[in-house]
Amino acid sequence: MLLFLAFTAGPVLGSLGMSFTDIRQRDLRTPFSVNGVGVDNYVKALQDETFRKAAFNTAYFVVIGVPLTLVLALGAAVLLDRGVKRFQALFKVGYYLPVVTSIVAIAVIWRFVLSPDNGLLNTVLGWVGIDGPNWLASKTWAMPSLIAMAAWRNFGSAMIIFLAGLQGIPDSVEEAGQIDGAGAWQRFRYLILPLLRPTILFTSVTTGIGYLQFFEEPFVMTKGGPLDSTLSVSMYTYNQFGFGNYGLATSMAYILFVVIAVITFIQFRLLREK
Amino acid sequence: MRRTWWIYLIGVLGLIAVAAPFLWMVLGSFKTQGELLRVPPTWWPERPTSQNYEELFSKANFPRYFLNSTLVALAVTAGNLIFCSMIGYALAKLRFKGRNALFVVVMATLMIPGMVTFVPLFVLVTNAGLANSYPGLILPFLVSPFGVFLMRQFFLGLPDDLIDAGRVDGTGELGIFARIMLPLTRPALATLGILTFLGSWNNFLWPLVIAQTEDKYTLPVALALYSTGQNAQNYGLLMAGAVVVVVPVLVMFLAFQRHVTKGIAITGLK
Q: Which keywords does this Swiss-Prot/TrEMBL entry list (chain A) (predicted)?
């Protein structure tokens, strides 16, 4: 418990304190030379053009990435629950594989998948006559590429939760729909989907929290470029830390945290209303 | 019946989409640099070579990183099994002042992103003289809020009667925990163990800042720095490096996958 307090709860308070100071790397040895600067760091962060750009990029990543991931996950879950009765376990494990692998390794592999001339993706696109762009070097395509990769890697995680949700719905619900003459799509849309609402809410929030912090993908694949088009808040925070601006970095992390906390809070409210 | 074949077809296409980058990585790691640069790319290596791996393990010092990753992951896993089960047990079964408050703290930290804690944690660890050391890599992860939560949920499901029976028999509190309750949580411990190991193996941000010299790099750190450094164009080396990072956890996951998916279904968290 002490360990836990020292290495988790302690730093949380520590970072809150630090975010109100001008602490820099050189202050590590002389902790008493640090001055309180009030909310200066927060003001500085929010006025920083690059930080705003990073915030926009992060929002872009979340707003497109979360629905894409969840649609893939739900599709896969329905496929496994209703479609492929035989070999179900094989499919489940297969789809889940990328989730347990290192994002760094995945990002390295995807750099080759997305490379312009001899990449896997552009080769496959070439078969159907599409001339793919240089994905990661394009201001327009770099972010969508990262989003696609994230969805590819993470959908298995939400899929497992959807599967549990689907299996919790009694067969009688669908049978009733069948008797009323509802088609497969109608049964899914009007019976299954509403019952899955809490599960969808839960997975969208957990996926969203994860995506708000995306870091490894741009770190390995694009370094935030081209022209900061894939710079995320986490990555910019890390860069500020690298420059030695500890106070500013923690205030940025706290801004991110507040956003996450607000979203989590909204989720709890929505769930309670049920 | 007629409908099922195309459903399976979709499923299989999905599997191919998931597996293709992995297969490509493995096949690519056996190609020469010249072949990797060829347009259009080849699928099977024309003249398979183990040169990339040899280079990885001689010049690039990957055995060292492999050892570091394994060491850190094993230590972190052991710590989590011990501490999370103890804290989880205390929060689930023991009555003491401030128990609920402690649980709220655990749940709150579960939601706090790593970015928030990492600067002060870095200052703390550096001031303690642990930067660039194994304790610096390991200590912050010995207990995880996720593990505490998982173990607490599991202990809650065990009947109190067992504890009472132990007390009647005159077993001490520690004995009740270690000899009666803990063995019953084996499935949860297996889940926690495998998830912690995978998490530690794949952990990136913390080792990136705390491992400052090559001899303390973990595999993901080494791979990331290689891929963005001067070796960025050495595709064969990078593919082989990715194989070394990914394949051990894939094998491990396949061996223990039931525990992994069960843990996620129980808690809904990664």
A: Cell membrane, Membrane, Sugar transport, Transmembrane, Transmembrane helix, Transport
Q: Do B264 and A111 touch (CB under 8 A)?
A: no
Find, among A86, A208, A232, A216, the residue nearest to A157 by Cα.
A208
Of B139, B245, B268, Cβ closest to residue A105: B245
pLDDT for B270 = 44
Using alpha carbons, list the distances in angstroms from residue B6 to A81, A185, B1, B18, B19. 15, 17, 10, 18, 20
- The contacts found for A33-40 with CB under 8 angstroms, 24 or more apart, are A37/A247
Report yes or no: A10 and B112 within 8 Å, Cβ to Cβ. Answer: no
Cβ contact, residue pair B143, A7, below 8 Å: yes
CATH of B60-268, one of 2.60.40.10, 3.40.50.920, 3.20.20.70, 1.10.3720.10: 1.10.3720.10
| Domain edges within chain A | 34-271
Contact: B21, A113; criterion CB under 8 Å: yes
Q: Does the beta-carbon distance from B224 to A219 stay under 8 Å?
A: yes
| Three-class DSSP category at A21 | strand
B139–A contact, CB cutoff 8 A: yes
Query: Which of B189, B174, B163, B159 minimizes the C-alpha distance to B81?
Result: B189
CATH domain A34-271 topology:
MetI-like fold (1.10.3720)
* Cα(A114)–Cα(B193) distance, integer angstroms: 35
Beta-bridge partner residues of A21: A36
**Whether the complex's predicted ipTM surpasses the cut of 0.85:** no
Q: In B, which residues are within 8 Å of A94 by CB distance? A: 15, 18-19
CATH 1.10.3720.10 in chain B is located at 60-268
Identify the residue whose tokens are 């009555």. B95
Q: CA-CA distance, A172 to A10, in Å (whole number)?
A: 51
pLDDT tens digits, A26-49:
555 555 556 666 667 777 777 778
Asked if the C-beta of B264 comes within 8 angstroms of chain A's C-beta atoms, the answer is yes
A29: nearest CA partner in chain B? B127
Structure tokens at B242: 């990715």
pLDDT of residue A171: 80
Q: B140 to chain A nearest CA, in Å?
A: 5
Q: Which of residues 154-183 of B touch A (CB under 8 A)?
A: none
Q: Taking CB atoms and an 8 Å cutoff, what residues of chain A touch B227?
A: 107-108, 111, 220
pLDDT, one tens digit per residue, over A168-210 is 888 888 788 888 877 778 888 888 888 888 888 888 888 888 8
- Name the pTM for this structure: 0.83
